[in-house]
Specification:
This protein is an alpha/beta fold and 422 residues long. It has 2 domains: 141 residues, Aspartate Aminotransferase, domain 1 (Alpha-Beta Complex), CATH 3.90.1150.10; 222 residues, Aspartate Aminotransferase, domain 2 (3-Layer(aba) Sandwich), CATH 3.40.640. It contains 13 helices and 13 strands. The strands form 3 sheets. Strands 2-8-7-6-5-3-4 form a 7-stranded mixed beta sheet, sandwiched between helices. It has a 4-stranded antiparallel beta sheet with strand order 9-10-13-12, with helices on one face. Strands 1-11 form a two-stranded parallel sheet. β3, α6 and β4 form a beta-alpha-beta unit.
Length: 422
């Protein structure tokens, strides 16, 4: 598409946007004078759908009216509540229904997945992660290495960007696997890197890692609800993601977990268990010997927090109404438009480090600041543009197709331009 720089052009794009109406289904933050902010932090905490409150209220009312009976006689019987989320969540991440479950929080699920899919031996025990991995994931894998009696420094391998570059490339990965393949037990990569916004070719990584004899997991915290993950076809062994970023389910809300169907019924996999991993039909007989549930559900341990699940359900219903493919279409336009306006600034103090190829990124652009500092981010915030700062020198901006507009993008870049020219 041919873009133009004027505000009228942004407004024309908004007028033609078939998803434009969804913006009004969200609470948009405003400053203390009630002036709307430009919110570009949906990659960190997604905004609240206006419907969330009523979804939670139903469960609060059932709890008030029914007490324990809500488990079986509630409007949405709590015993089955996680099942109400499965279909839409599976569609969003491109998985079969029995490959997906919503449970726990992300880092907890990463550990549970490693209980099953990180089974080191003396020869094959290393874990390969991205050089610029999200800290929680790094701490998690280091602690798994120590848990199994290995040295956390020696046991970690990094797939890093070439010197002076920001993005990872597959030749380097190939080389690491060629050199160390026999020592690697697990390849654990962020599906979309949180810092650069680089979206990896999951299938390609899976194939390469499997060929080397390693298992593969993806942390899709920055992918779920943002890009077309196609987890089933990726052949990954497992994936995990949180629901409070692009999935708008509220601070600290539960995580999604994917286990490829080839592991659904594998009795030889090591797993941790609880009563929620046990056969649903005999769960409440209580004295039954343990019977593993089929599929991803079999990794659940506990009965889940319904109030948080209700918030997820509210959000997933919005996704279902909008359609993931429509969202991705709009996302590509919004982000290309942002990229265009930034390039039109023609200012060597800012550099977008996110891949230019729309297939290798989601909605986020990471703007590196060159010979200017963090105060620029503070000025953006003061001027009503909410983005985030990641050390050492990056501002991340995520125009989200569900609730951001082309005018938001225009306002953001216009604000940045004024700050740069100040
Ligand atoms: C957001 C994020 C997390 C957060 O983990 P929690 O367990 O939900 O606190 C972990 N990993 C990545 C890659 C993330 O982007």
């Amino acid at each position: 598409m041919k873009y133009r720089t004027g505000l009228d052009f942004a407004q024309q794009l908004d007028a033609k946007d078939t998803l434009g109406e969804f913006r009004s289904q969200f609470y948009l933050p405003s400053d203390k004078d009630g002036k709307p902010l430009v919110y570009f932090c949906g990659n960190s905490l997604g905004l609240q759908p206006k419907s969330t409150k009523s979804y939670i209220q139903i469960e609060l009312d059932d709890w008030a009216k029914l007490g324990v009976e809500g488990h079986t006689h509630g409007t949405n019987p709590w015993l089955h509540y996680h099942e109400f989320l499965t279909e839409t969540m599976a569609n969003i991440v491109g998985a079969k229904h029995h490959e997906v479950v919503v449970m726990n929080s992300l880092t907890v699920n990463l550990h549970l997945m490693m209980v099953s899919f990180y089974r080191p031996t003396k020869e094959r025990y290393k874990i390969l992660i991205e050089g610029d991995v999200f800290p929680s994931d790094k701490y998690a894998v280091e602690s798994q290495l120590r848990h199994h009696g290995f040295d956390a420094n020696e046991g970690l391998l990094f797939w890093s960007a070439p010197k002076g570059k920001e993005l990872l490339n597959y030749d380097d990965l190939e080389e690491i696997l060629h050199e160390h393949g026999r020592e690697i037990a697990l390849v654990m990569i962020g599906g979309v890197n949180y810092y650069t916004g680089q979206y990896f070719d999951l299938k390609r990584i899976s194939d390469m890692a499997h060929k080397a004899g390693a298992l593969v997991g993806f942390d899709c915290a920055h992918g779920a609800g943002n890009v077309d993950l196609n987890l089933h076809d990726s052949e990954a062994d497992f994936a995990i993601w949180c629901s409070y970023k692009y999935l708008n389910s509220g601070p600290g809300s539960l995580s999604g977990c994917f286990v490829h169907e080839r592991h659904a019924n594998n009795p030889y996999l090591n797993r941790f268990a609880g009563w929620w991993s046990h056969n649903k039909t005999t769960r409440f007989n209580m004295r039954q010997p343990f019977e593993q549930l089929y599929g991803a559900e079999g990794w659940q341990l506990s009965n889940p927090p319904i109030l948080s699940m209700a918030a997820i359900r509210a959000s997933l219903d919005v996704f279902k109404a909008a359609g993931m493919n429509n969202l991705i279409d709009k996302s590509k336009k919004l982000t290309s438009y942002l990229e265009y306006l930034l390039s039109e600034l023609n200012d060597e103090r800012i550099k977008v480090i996110t891949p230019k190829n729309p297939l290798e990124r989601g909605c986020q652009l990471s703007i590196q600041l060159i010979s200017t500092d963090k105060s620029l981010h503070q000025k953006l915030t003061n001027a009503g543009v909410i983005s985030d700062w990641r050390e050492p020198d990056v501002i991340r901006v995520a125009p989200v197709p569900l609730y951001n507009s082309f005018e938001d993008v225009h306002r953001m870049v216009d604000t940045l331009k004024n700050i740069l020219h100040d």
